Amino acid sequence: MTKPRVAITFGVALTALASIASADIKIAHIYPGSGPLGVYGKQSHDGFMLGLEYATDGSMMINGEKIVVIEKDSQANPEMGRSLLEEAYADDEVDLAVGPVSSGVAMAMLPVAEEYEKLLIVEPAVADSITGPDSNRYIFHTGRNSSQDAIANAKAIGRPGVSIAVLAQDYAFGRDGVAAFKAALEGTGADLVHEEYVPTTTTDFTAAGQRLFDALKDEDGEKLIYTIWAGSGNPMSKLQAMNPERYDIGFALAGNILAALPAYKQFPGAEGATYYYYENPNNAINDWLVSEHQKRFDSPPDMFTAGGMSAALAIVNAIESANSTDTEDLIETMEGMSWETPKGTMTFRKEDHQALQPMYHFKVVDDDAYDWARLELVREIPVSEMDVPVGRTNR
């Protein structure tokens, strides 16, 4: 009798252990841990973990179930990102995934979510195409998209008598960004007179800069160069070194991470719009993020820190509200869902799952008390002022 009794007990124990293990809420975070986008990846992950902590009051549990975050390094490589997402869904059996940083990697990952019928929360990749016709119902985009960047910047710098030439990186982020910016400028009175695309690895901007100057130099009125750029390269400082003042050409600046902002000190008074700068939002969540990040990392939170936190807050809110990690339950809950973030209220648009969110019109201030240029708030641009085009409409 002993053997059967032990066998039964052992079997029950294994079943109980399996039940406990399956109760964990498993989330894959796929982001570049190294390379030119590695700094963005670290910010995103730091923000994501802070967001989970904030949303769960430090318990790292949702509805009594433990959160397990599985980190994977995409190396900003589309094929690697795709493979890692397949691994997360099939082998790690995660409930959902978050990431990546690069828009190119995001596009490679979209069909994987559909194949496995699992959620992918895209943060912070930006391209409009992430929620476009080639997307699918399993994609939710907490990051802002190119249209939101473009509309906000058009509102900040678009006015009659302004001529603008754009420099952008030659891939989805840059081209989607320019297309959205061009559309957003319509009706502002400003003219987009030239588009210049260069490889992401460009370090010598001499030829591109001269083409930008040639396009603007004979225009009347205010003349601005606007850049859509991510990662290293620092095109604005290099263009500034080419003496655009001889043609009365100035710069309009998009938001950027803190590491890039010391270079903005060369452009006091320049205006633009940003997704996030830690001094701009005024709400309790951002106050907590700024305080805690300063304590733990001896620096303010950055653009992608806020984005990672927003993604975490969305996930916790959705799972708590649905009382489930089932994909269909979460989709039903998240479509049209509003939740609070360091930027205030965000809402997932039901049609394409893009998060609608405020943006910030800023003016560059060279303040000796800061190592970087301050992006002084001119005004918050509310969601109601941004007619963001709907991407995927096929349901």
TrEMBL record:
Domain Leucine-binding protein as annotated: residue spans: 25-367
Cell division keyword on record: no
InterPro entries: BCAA_transport, Leu-bd, Peripla_BP_I
Pfam families: Peripla_BP_6 (PF13458)
Swiss-Prot/TrEMBL keywords: Signal
Signal peptide from the UniProt entry: 1-23
Annotated family: Belongs to the leucine-binding protein family.
Protein's name according to its UniProt entry: Branched-chain amino acid ABC transporter, periplasmic branched-chain amino acid-binding protein
Native source organism of the sequence: Reinekea blandensis MED297
Lineage of the species this protein comes from: Bacteria, Pseudomonadati, Pseudomonadota, Gammaproteobacteria, Oceanospirillales
